[in-house]
What we know:
The chain has five helices and six strands, in the order αββββααββαα. The protein is of the alpha+beta class. The protein has a domain at about 5-100. Strand 5 and strand 6 form a beta hairpin. The longest helix has 8 residues, at about 60-65. The model has no long low-confidence stretch (mean pLDDT about 80).
Amino acid sequence: MYDKKQYGKPFCGLSVRLYETGNISPKYEYSASASKSKLMCSLTKKLYSISQIVDWYNTPAVQAYANEGYELKVASKIQQAKESKYGKDTEQTICYYMAKPYKPQNIDGMKSIGDSVPRYTEQPMTQAQPSAPDKATTAQLSDLDDEIPF
């Protein structure tokens, strides 16, 4: 999933597990107690409560990622549970993690759309020209009334 060679740094995330409720959508399929659940840091293995997510983000280890241009993202996945709790076999893991922002790259020498489409340049305004000939007259309302035969 995460290749350290590709990014050059170990995975930096804060994750919590939600367990199956036995319900199906539109009810919540996975849940956990917010007051009892702890989120675990992947770098330090320290546990944080939900109200301490900002504290985790402000730690020096995470700030090292932020200073290099990484951004905070959130993701979830459903996986097989390591231990079966109440007879359920799947769990959902929610993870707040630091990731490098996507930068589109030039593929096979092709220009990006922004480079290939010409930019809008403002044209100077010209004087409006009259569209009616000089001898034109306005029509009278009585000329437009037609006699309707009954």
